[in-house]
Recover the amino acids of this structure.
């Protein structure tokens, strides 16, 4: 006797079909019930998992055991001449037909009756137009978009991104200024999105954007603050300095932006805002290169980031930001 014939004789195929149909019906019924009682998602997921795990268990049970007039026995202990697998098979056939009948009836009622029944007519009530509430002014807010690298060298991308992160970090230190998170702002990097779309997505009233051109020991930075509701410039400034002045430029841009948003924010800006705590340009550049690789967040890039952070600490052992970034690299 072939293996397939043996599966049929032991009713394994019938049991599998019956289990599949019953499981599908249980899932449909559970979906309706759980939705109406607002059960958490994990309940439905648990039911599905139990039913999936139960299938091979039932199949193995049907193969190894047989129903007899005396009860369930191991198949090898049953005399073939006294086997009632054919009777059990007919019972399984009737059970499958019964479950399928109930299932088809359920589907027909759901599709033809429940979904197609016309909604009860409702009277049209004329009501005064509802005025939408004006947005609540929650104070000044800004998103710092990634500054565009205009250096013509892709390798300088780390510098423009690093400058953006530093400015974002500095502005976020002002308690009354809401600053969009770095992940949210950098999501628009390289995308052709309008100011209104960006401000609506990030929930800010202003957008700070700019460009960086680094050539040798010179750096040219353009920064502009744009009001989202009308697209007009609130403030714009060019900075053309030696690269050694990058820390002073960051301070200037942050203070100018805060002042353009609200002069009251600058009350104690000299104490409230600080950039990275290093004056070593080589350490700072290694730190920025590390941040660029860390943002990629792959196995190889994290290893490269670790080396950059360690180089920054070798140049300036007191560089706390580099040390913290190195710690994050291990998390």
């Amino acid at each position: 006797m072939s293996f397939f014939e043996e599966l049929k004789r032991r009713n394994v195929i019938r049991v599998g079909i019956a289990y599949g149909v019953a499981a599908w019906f249980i899932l449909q019924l559970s979906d309706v019930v759980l939705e109406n009682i607002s059960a958490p998602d994990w309940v439905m997921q648990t039911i599905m998992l139990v039913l999936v795990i139960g299938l091979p268990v039932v199949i193995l049970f049907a193969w190894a055991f047989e129903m007899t007039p005396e009860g369930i026995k191991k198949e090898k202990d049953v005399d073939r001449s006294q086997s009632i697998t054919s009777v059990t098979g007919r019972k399984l056939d009737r059970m499958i037909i019964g479950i399928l009948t109930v299932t088809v009836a359920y589907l027909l009622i759901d599709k033809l009756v429940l979904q197609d029944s016309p909604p009860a007519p409702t009277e049209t009530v004329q009501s005064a137009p509802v005025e939408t509430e004006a947005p609540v002014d929650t104070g000044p807010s800004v998103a710092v978009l990634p500054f565009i690298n205009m250096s013509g060298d892709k390798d300088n991308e780390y510098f423009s991104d690093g400058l953006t992160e530093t400015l974002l970090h500095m502005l976020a230190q002002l308690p009354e200024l809401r600053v969009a998170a770095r992940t949210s702002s950098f999501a628009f990097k390289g995308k052709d999105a309008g100011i209104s779309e960006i401000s609506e997505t990030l929930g800010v009233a202003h957008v700070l954007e700019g460009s960086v051109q680094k050539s040798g020991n010179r750096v040219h930075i353009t920064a502009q603050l744009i009001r989202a509701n009308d697209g007009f410039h609130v403030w714009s400034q060019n900075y053309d300095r030696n690269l050694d002045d990058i820390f002073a430029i960051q301070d200037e841009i942050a203070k100018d932006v805060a002042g353009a948003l609200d002069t009251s924010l600058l009350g104690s800006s000299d104490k409230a805002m600080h950039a990275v705590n290093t004056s070593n340009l080589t350490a700072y550049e290694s730190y920025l290169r590390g941040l660029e690789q860390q943002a990629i967040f792959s196995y190889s890039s994290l290893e490269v980031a670790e080396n950059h952070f360690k180089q920054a600490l070798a140049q300036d052992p007191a560089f706390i930001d580099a040390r913290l970034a190195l710690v994050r690299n291990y998390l």
About this structure: The first strand starts at residue 65 and ends at 68.
